[in-house]
Amino acid sequence: MTPLAQSGTIDVDSWDTLQSTPMDTGLCVRETDGEFRHNNNTETVLRFVGVLFILSAFVQWSFPDANFVGDPMLSKTLLSVAFALIGMAAYRFAIKGHRAEIRFDSKSKSIEIAALNRRDRTKGKRSLKLNEIKSIYVRRADMPQGKAALRIRLKSCSKEITAIRGSLAEIEAAHAVLCSNIRHGNRA
């Protein structure tokens, strides 16, 4: 049984926006859908398009100079730069982590926030010790159909970190269990 199910606040099996994973040393909650709600097929197509644009930056140099307006060298150079930049941007967007995960480790007394891609590979990670954190709170959605967010305030700066997003009930349940685990220092 996961820690969120033990809390009795919400049935974890009926969750839509978050997923709880049991850990030996604490709590792990991740988003099921990221900011852009794309799937593995979309990511694969976008990566393919990115690579195609990068290859087209090289292939267009094999076309005859008569096909280009004005100075062919300048036109080919500008096209190469444009194709390469578009291809790199598309590829980077496809592999970027669009889903978030938060882990609480009771042994090291730290919270780790990670960005995950669709294959659950970590694309970015930030670790925060509990003594660096000022507060953890739930921010309700601004719009009726929007997502609530679990936010973290740091002592060292006024900047806040959005850890995970999801439905209000699920975020509140995750917040309650996370705070309980932190307060009591218990294993999740």
List the helices and strands and how they pair.
Layout: H1 3-7, E1 18-22, E2 26-31, H2 40-59, H3 72-95, E3 99-105, E4 110-116, E5 122-129, E6 133-139, E7 148-154, E8 160-166, H4 168-184
Antiparallel strand pairs: 1-2, 2-3, 3-4, 4-5, 6-7, 7-8
Helix pairs in contact: 2-3
Give an overview of the whole structure.
With 188 residues, the protein is an alpha+beta fold. The protein contains 4 helices and 8 strands. It has helices at residues 3-7, 40-59, 72-95, 168-184, and strands at 18-22, 26-31, 99-105, 110-116, 122-129, 133-139, 148-154, 160-166. The strands form 2 sheets. A 5-stranded antiparallel beta sheet has the order 1-2-3-4-5, with helices on one face. A 3-stranded antiparallel beta sheet has the order 6-7-8, with helices on one face. Helix 2 packs antiparallel against helix 3 (72-95). The longest helix has 24 residues, at 72-95. The termini are close together. The relative contact order is 0.18.
Question: TL;DR of this structure?
Answer:
By secondary structure, the protein is α+β, with helices and mostly antiparallel strands. It is built from four helices and eight strands, in the order αββααββββββα.
